[in-house]
TrEMBL record:
It comes from the Bacteria. SUPFAM superfamilies: Arginase/deacetylase (SSF52768). Keywords: Hydrolase, Metal-binding. PANTHER family: ARGINASE/AGMATINASE, GUANIDINO ACID HYDROLASE, MITOCHONDRIAL. InterPro entries: Agmatinase-rel (IPR005925), Ureohydrolase (IPR006035), Ureohydrolase_dom_sf (IPR023696), Ureohydrolase_Mn_BS (IPR020855). GO terms for molecular function: agmatinase activity. Its EC number is 3.5.3.11. This is Agmatinase. Belongs to the arginase family. Agmatinase subfamily. Pfam families: Arginase.
């Protein structure tokens, strides 16, 4: 296929016959599945299921991350034509990737959402696929991690974020985007000794043993030193990656609920993600994209790139 195929290809989300390969329909038209992958609920033979959880409940400042999955999918249309630059291989040629669509839930039953997320991700994993989740606020990562740990045991975590999200919260009924990691550690589903948070730039009195590589250290020490420390911490453990888009400086991602200056540049985030090649990645998410606060679409573009990089990490050990 080539770009000239746009003359005849459209709505590849529904019309493509296979699960591999690039797509060449016009970026500005057609059904906007993630990377123009096939929309399907059939998980048979699937390696990676991209799914959306359009849920936000009580973010610190600016709501709207429920629109994140839709915006990320639309932004990903710009990336469907080519393999991700610099990887040296095309993950869509070695992985069967689908868009599993969004998780269904009753918006008036907030307390029921975490259980639905856990079951949703669990079904993906039980079918043998790796989940890549588009959020939604950061509260969604806790039930995702519950599903992961139920199948893989306590995992190592790489968190890209401006906030450590380990503020104390011992109320099991609270759904809070800022305490997911506190609860995950307290519940024994994340091993803090094998976990690292990158890009942090807000104070927190207790990070519960998670290694903190704050934004200032990344700027000062550089990407290579940061990656060396990450690999030292996680070792060869199975690892989950969660990427809060506010890990990026607001100059690169203004459309988020909790922007904090002094963050990672997009090139740093790209280099850090790419430098993780070879890790035993279980799955990942990108959260907190809030399109109403970024009319340029830059934040959604960043979120789409993060999701593509996660897919490339999943395919790295299978490449020819």
């Amino acid at each position: 296929m080539a770009l000239e195929d746009a003359k005849t290809q459209v709505d590849q989300a529904f019309t493509r016959r296979d699960l591999r390969g690039l797509s060449f329909e016009n970026a500005f038209g057609g059904a906007t599945s993630f990377l123009r992958r096939r929309y399907t609920k059939d998980l048979a033979g699937v390696d990676v299921a991209v799914t959306g959880v359009p849920f936000d409940q009580a973010v610190t400042h600016r709501p709207g991350t429920r629109f994140g999955p839709r915006a990320i999918r639309e932004a990903s249309a710009l990336q469907a034509f080519d393999a991700p630059y610099g990887w040296g291989y095309d993950p869509l040629s070695v992985l069967d990737v689908i868009d599993y669509g969004d998780m269904a839930f009753d918006y008036a039953d907030t307390r029921g959402v975490p259980g639905r997320i856990e079951a949703h991700i669990g079904a993906i994993m039980d079918a043998g696929a790796a989940p890549i989740t588009l959020g939604g606020d950061h509260s969604i990562t806790l039930p995702i991690l519950r599903a992961v740990a139920a199948r893989r045991g306590p995992v190592a975590l790489i968190q890209f974020d401006a906030h450590s999200d380990t503020w104390a919260d011992d109320d099991p009924d609270r759904i809070d985007h800022g305490t997911f990691l506190y609860k995950a550690i307290r519940q024994g589903i994340v091993d803090p000794a094998a976990s690292v948070s990158i890009g942090i730039r807000t104070d927190n009195p207790d990070t519960l043993g998670v290694s903190i590589l704050d934004a200032a250290s990344v700027h000062r020490d550089g990407v290579a030193a940061t990656l060396a420390r990450v690999r030292e911490v996680i070792g060869d453990r199975p690892v989950y990656v969660t990427f809060d888009i506010d890990a990026l400086d607001p100059a690169f991602a203004p459309g988020t609920g909790t922007p904090v200056w002094g963050g990672l540049a997009s090139w740093q985030a790209a280099a850090l993600l790419r430098g993780l090649a070879g890790i035993d990645l279980i799955g990942g998410d990108v959260v907190e994209v809030s399109p109403p606060y970024d009319p340029t679409g830059a934040t959604a573009i960043a979120g789409a790139h993060v999701a593509v990089e996660l897919i490339a990490l999943l395919g790295w050990n299978r490449r020819g």
